[in-house]
Design a protein that fits this description.
The chain has helices at residues 6-19, 24-34, 44-51, 55-67, 90-116, 121-146; strands at 42-43, 71-75, 82-86. With 148 residues, the chain is mainly α. The chain has a 3-stranded antiparallel sheet. β2 and β3 form a beta hairpin. The two termini are 30 Å apart.
Length: 148
């Protein structure tokens, strides 16, 4: 069993459930895996015991997390069991999706600006502020991802 801080675990379950739009059990599984610092993996049976949940509930939520690429699984050479760990690449995947959304929104903003074709100083200033915010955020995230 993994040693966890219960208060921190509860905060993480709430945060990741909201941030990733996960059902409660999936958020618990993901949060639990974060405490697997050595990345040894957690077996299906351990999840059943730790969360006192049915095998079908655990299975459904593990499959959801696997399909979302939030976790990965592996088999150890000497065991038939599957073990689950956080997908260490998920944060990069997540931030690449955020960049894509910001770039799409920036493109829409520029199209809206062109369509409006205004000379209103206040409106032009707001477009400029929003555009600068998106461009700086995109650049900052890309620069950070390049360091990983």
């Amino acid at each position: 069993m993994i040693q966890i801080d219960k208060a921190l675990f509860c905060d993480m379950v709430k945060f990741y459930g909201e941030a990733f739009h996960l059902p409660p059990l999936a958020a618990k599984i993901y949060s639990y895996l974060i405490f697997d610092f050595e990345r040894e993996g957690v077996s299906f049976d351990e999840f059943v015991v730790v969360f006192s949940a049915s095998k079908s509930s655990i299975s459904s939520n593990l499959n959801l997390l696997l399909n979302l690429n939030i976790i990965t699984d592996f088999n150890k050479i000497d065991e038939r069991k599957r073990f689950f760990v956080m997908n260490e690449k998920y944060m990069k995947i997540r931030f690449e999706e955020i960049i894509e959304k910001m770039e799409n929104e920036l493109s829409l903003l520029n199209k809206l600006k062109a369509f409006r074709n205004t000379s209103d100083e206040n409106a032009l200033r707001k477009f400029e502020v929003y555009s600068n915010l998106f461009n700086k955020s995109i650049t900052n995230i890309k620069d950070t991802l390049d360091q990983l």
